C-alpha cells in the first residue's frame, strides 16, 4: 500500500481473521462461561440424583434384602432401586423441554445461524441429561448386588 500511495494513513494492517477474533472475543468468553456453568449444573444434577438414589438404597436395604430372599433377581432389585431416579429425571426433562420451547422465542434475537427451536439441540440435551441420570441412578443401585439377604434377615 505504501508503494502505491505513500500518503495513505495506515496505522495497522491485520488479517480479517484477527479482526474477527478481536470483535468476537467478548462473545466467545461469555459462551465459554455459559458452557462451564452448564457443565457445573450437569455435575450437580448427577451428584444430586446419585445422592438421592444412594440414600434410598440405604433406607430400603432391608426391603431389598427381603425381596431378594423371596426370589427377586438382582436385576429386578437393581431396577426397583434405580427407576425412581430415572422417572424423576424424565419428568424434569418433559417439564424443562416444555418451558424451553415456550421461552425459546425470547432468545431468537440473540442467536445467529441457529434456530431457537433447533430439534438437534433439544435432542442432544435430552440425550445427555437422560444418560447422566441413568448412570447416576444405576451406580448406587448396583450396591444391591453386595447385599446378603440371609445376613439382613438375621440382623433383626
Radius of gyration: 27 Å
Number of strands: 0
**Count of all domains:** 1
How many DSSP helices?
6
Q: Tell me the major beta sheet.
A: none
Computed structural class: mainly alpha
Provide mean pLDDT, rounded.
86
- Measured by DSSP, the beta-strand proportion falls in under 5%
Distance between the termini: 92 Å
- Helix share bin: over 70%
Succession of helices and strands: HHHHHH
Residue stretches low in confidence (pLDDT < 50, at least 5 long) are: none
Shape: elongated
Written account of the structure:
- The protein has one domain.
- The chain is built from six helices and no strands.
- The radius of gyration is 27 Å and the shape is elongated.
- With 156 residues, the chain is an all-alpha fold.
- Helix 4 packs antiparallel against helix 5 (119-141).
Quick summary of this structure?
The protein is mainly alpha-helical.
Give me the secondary-structure topology.
Blueprint: H1 16-23, H2 25-59, H3 61-69, H4 74-103, H5 119-141, H6 149-155
Helix pairs in contact: 2-4, 2-5, 3-6, 4-5
Tags for this model:
mainly alpha; 6 helices; elongated
